[in-house]
Each structure stands twice: as structure tokens, then as C-alpha cells.
């Protein structure tokens, strides 16, 4: 093979590699994508209004919103909501409708589709800093929100 033919072949191979890098992977190829849950944390009221007492009013003034951003309902049975001190709330059978939210209150009360209660006797969310982590029934992290000085995402 002549030198000029070798150079042309090398140039064609190199240009093919550049072209291949410019196109995304085809549907048949497996490209690892991070898991993004449609169920996420929304607003968090970590500092209950007024003084932090152990009254139900004060305890239930502390809450976390969990939102389903998908078009389909999601059963939250077995999902957990955990703070940075590993205090967890495990959801019982709760069907969260498409584009709906539920508030998870720290204290006690009557559960329904829009409000559930952990039944705790003390506040669990840190007023200065904390991290809320939502995990699905398989233990996969769905979402995390932090505030204050200690962030863990």
C-alpha cells in the first residue's frame, strides 16, 4: 500500500471516530442514566411556628411535603423519610395521586390523602441544620433536601 493511500485511510478512520463521538448512543445501546424519581420532597417546615413545645399544635407545625410529579399514582407503602440522625418514618399504604402532594407531620393526628402523621412526641427536624432524605420501598434515594450548615446530598 502506498504512503498516500495509508494517509488517506488513517484520515478516514480518524474522521469516522470524530463523527461517532458527535452522535448520541442509539436506542439499542445501554447508557447509564442516574435514576430520577418522580416522587420528590417539596416544601419543608422544619422550624415549627412559635416556641418548640411538645404540644400537638407545635409538633404538627413541623412537616415535610412529598410530591408525585408523574402522571400516574404511586403507592408509598414502605417508602421512608429520614433525618440526619437516622430517625425514620415509614409510609403505610398511601396511594399518592398523579401531581398530588402529602404533608408528613411530626406529631399525631388523623391520616388522610393529604396529611399523614408520624406520631412522635418530640420535634425531629433541626431548626439550624438538618437533611431530609426520601427513599423508595427498595431503599433507593428518591430525593434529599438540606438546610443550614451540614449538607449531605
TrEMBL record:
Residues 1-27 form the signal peptide. Residues 117-153 are annotated as: Disordered. It comes from the Bacteria. Residues 119-144 have a biased composition (Basic and acidic residues). The keyword Signal applies. The keyword Signal applies. This is LTD domain-containing protein. It comes from Streptomyces tsukubensis. The lineage of its organism: Bacteria, Bacillati, Actinomycetota, Actinomycetes, Kitasatosporales.
Amino acid at each position: 500500500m502506498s504512503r498516500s493511500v495509508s494517509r488517506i485511510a488513517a484520515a478516514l478512520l480518524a474522521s469516522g471516530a470524530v463523527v461517532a463521538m458527535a452522535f448520541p448512543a442509539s436506542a439499542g445501546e445501554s447508557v447509564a442514566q442516574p435514576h430520577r424519581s418522580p416522587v420528590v420532597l417539596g416544601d419543608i417546615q422544619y422550624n415549627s411556628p412559635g416556641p418548640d413545645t411538645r404540644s400537638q399544635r407545635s409538633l404538627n407545625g413541623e412537616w415535610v411535603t412529598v410530591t408525585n410529579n408523574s402522571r400516574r399514582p404511586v403507592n408509598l407503602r414502605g417508602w421512608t423519610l429520614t433525618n440526619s440522625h437516622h430517625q425514620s418514618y415509614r409510609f403505610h399504604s398511601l396511594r399518592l395521586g398523579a401531581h398530588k402532594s402529602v404533608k408528613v407531620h411530626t406529631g399525631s393526628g388523623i391520616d388522610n390523602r393529604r396529611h399523614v402523621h408520624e406520631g412522635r412526641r418530640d420535634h425531629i427536624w433541626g431548626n439550624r441544620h438538618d437533611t431530609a432524605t426520601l427513599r423508595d420501598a427498595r431503599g433507593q434515594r428518591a430525593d434529599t433536601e438540606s438546610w443550614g450548615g451540614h449538607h449531605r446530598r
